UniProtKB/TrEMBL annotation:
PANTHER family: PHOSPHOGLUCOMUTASE (ALPHA-D-GLUCOSE-1,6-BISPHOSPHATE-DEPENDENT), PHOSPHOHEXOSE MUTASE. It comes from Urochloa decumbens. This is phosphoglucomutase (alpha-D-glucose-1,6-bisphosphate-dependent). Residues 96-215, 239-344, 349-452 form the Alpha-D-phosphohexomutase alpha/beta/alpha domain. The keyword Metal-binding applies.
Length: 585
């Protein structure tokens, strides 16, 4: 697998300071929408932006994305040869759903660098131009924009490019240095005049959990951007202080509500190490045994990913070795998280959603919990039958899940929690930001409240909340790849081909009395049978049909796999090798 080194996220999260709101949140619907009409060269785009930014933005036509969280994500992956000249840049190819993705570091054959410093600078300038255009209605002519990064090896050079572009355009930059993605969002909200907050917009450079390939020389800060002012701000301390106050508030104002609790953190050498010194220690927790807190873009220990088996084994072992009450693990930019209880049981995926649902439904009885499409049938039973809530299973993609929760509120259906099995989780009380640190604070609130009452059961107070969650004995994900060069596509798109596969499967299932299509489903084909279920769906961006199967035994899982294989095997452009191997076990 080709390793990736940098996923640049441009969080154009705009806090407009006026009363107009949408969907019950405090944020308006206006959004930075970078657009491209043609494959113009970088030079042409750069000059157009510099001379007449609004004109450039208004003459383009393809929106990148727009949603209520008001963020543009810009992902930079590790890659191979450098684009030899900027004229080769096709800005449309940087669009990937709600992301702006590009290859930022050389090293992988066949993946030429297309998110260079000039291109990054152009994107930053375009964002500032768009933002200025939106703010000028209020008489604002000079912007303050925050920029932060995770531990990626390409982070500094891209940060410098962003800084150079925006300051050259006459706007000010607040450099936060190592930061989390949720903190960047929050910098548009924080009221702190001393530290020049709130900002008008923020840019985060990150690659989430994606691995590196090779190192890259960082460049020095450019000295020629004299029109705008660059200020260094320790924003992570400000952000962490708010988290600490939230836990103290839940414990009735007690200064050290976690006193005596042993909590270990695995930051995976990403940006989450702050949680130990800036959150847990001020709350009185014992943190010995915490690991991989120092940022290191080479990720020498494990991939910082709460879904990764090696990563979860690492934090589980740390809990057991240190006899800790709780373990916490973050992904690189801390927008996802998971936990481990004192006995070594993982609290991630369906379990973490169940735990958060239990906490939220105590606070908001009967509320709707929105999740992605691959959550289990057992989770539905748990939320609806035990907790008395409503489970709204929607589509994959944290943006889809969050937007759906916001939409439900707008039409009168109360929802306070939106979560993906990946560990992305957003709460209405936290402005619908997917913040891994805030999710863990919700767990700490429960622990702190229990300690205030004199409880000494540690994380058992959390484990008890998910008691009764039915879990499948067998859980499988198999990816069926579509060969885009196969003659069977007949020149069509992989998406059209994938949709044809799904329609055929749906028709085949209707003829099988042992299988039953889900009565309400928003993505792919979801079917129950043989005491389990499967979901075949089309990937959001890639020529792949992921197949998820859950069952109470391997035999039952194989029966479900055979049903899918029988229906899709006639599609010769679909690689069913992995599925065939699974059903032969």
């Amino acid at each position: 697998m080709a390793a990736l080194s940098a996923k640049t996220i441009q969080n154009a999260f705009l806090a407009q300071h006026h009363p107009r709101t949408r969907h019950g949140t405090r944020y308006p619907s206006d959004f930075c929408s970078l657009k491209t009409r043609s494959m113009r060269s970088f030079q042409e785009c750069r000059l157009a932006v510099a001379d007449s930014s609004a004109k450039w933005l208004n003459t383009t036509s393809t929106p990148w994305t727009s949603f209520d969280r008001q963020a543009v994500s810009c992902n930079a992956a590790q890659g191979g040869s450098v684009v030899s000249y900027a004229g080769k840049v096709d800005f449309l190819k940087l669009q990937n759903g709600s992301d702006i993705r590009g290859v930022a570091v050389a090293g992988v054959e066949g993946e030429p660098v297309n998110l260079t410093e000039p291109v990054t600078e152009a994107i930053a300038v375009a964002f500032a131009a768009w933002l200025l255009n939106k703010k000028e209605a209020d008489g604002l002519r000079r912007l303050r924009i925050s920029v932060g990064h995770d531990s990626r090896i390409s982070a500094h050079k891209l940060q410098n490019a962003v800084t150079h572009g925006i300051t050259a355009a006459g706007h000010d930059i607040l450099q936060f240095g190592l930061a989390s993605t949720p903190a960047m969002f929050n910098s548009t909200l924080t009221e702190d005049e001393k530290n020049h907050l709130p900002v008008d917009g923020g840019i985060m450079i990150t690659a989430s959990h994606l691995p590196y390939n090779r190192n890259d020389d960082n460049q020095k800060e450019r000295e020629d951007a004299s029109r705008g002012v660059v200020t260094n701000v320790d924003y992570m301390s400000i952000y962490a202080s708010d988290l600490v106050q939230a836990v103290r508030k839940s414990a009735g104002g007690k200064e050290e509500p976690l006193d005596g609790l042993h909590i270990v953190v695995d930051a995976g050498n990403g940006a989450g190490g702050f949680f130990v010194d800036k959150v847990l220690k001020p709350l009185g927790a014992v943190t010995t045994g915490s690991q991989f807190l120092e940022p290191d873009g080479l990720f020498p220990n494990h991939i910082p990913n709460p879904e990764d088996k090696t990563a979860m084994m690492a934090i589980t072992q740390a809990v057991l070795d240190n006899k800790a009450d709780l373990g916490i693990i973050f992904d690189t930019d801390v927008d996802r998280s998971a936990a481990v209880d004192s006995s070594g049981h993982e609290l991630n995926r369906n379990r973490l959603i169940a735990l958060m649902a239990a906490i939220v439904l105590e606070e908001h009885p009967g509320t709707t919990v929105v999740t992605d499409s691959v959550t289990s049938d057992g989770l539905t039973v748990f939320i609806e039958n035990k907790l008395g809530g409503k489970h709204h299973r929607f589509k994959r993609g944290y943006k889809n899940v969050i937007d759906e929760a916001i939409r439900l509120n707008s039409v009168g259906e109360e929802s306070h929690l939106a979560m993906e099995t990946s560990g992305h989780g957003a709460l209405k009380e936290n402005h619908w930001l997917d913040d891994g640190a805030y999710l863990m604070v919700k767990l700490l609130n429960k622990l702190a409240a229990a300690r205030t009452l004199g409880s000494s059961i540690g994380s058992k107070v959390l484990t008890d909340l998910v008691d009764g969650l039915e879990e499948a004995a067998v859980t499988v994900e198999i990816r069926l790849k579509i060969d885009q060069n196969h003659a069977d596509l007949k020149g069509g798109s992989f998406r059209d081909y994938g949709e044809a596969v799904l329609r055929h499967l749906e028709n085949a299932i209707a003829k099988d009395s042992d299988l039953h299509k889900a009565p309400k489903n928003y993505e792919g084909v979801r079917v129950s049978g043989y005491g389990g279920w499967f979901l075949l769906r089309l990937s959001l961006h890639d020529p792949v049909l992921p197949l998820n199967i859950e069952a109470q035994s391997k035999d039952d899982a194989i029966k479900l796999g055979l049903a899918v294989l029988a229906a899709v095997s006639e599609f010769s452009a679909l690689d069913v090798t992995a599925l065939s191997k699974f059903v032969r076990q």
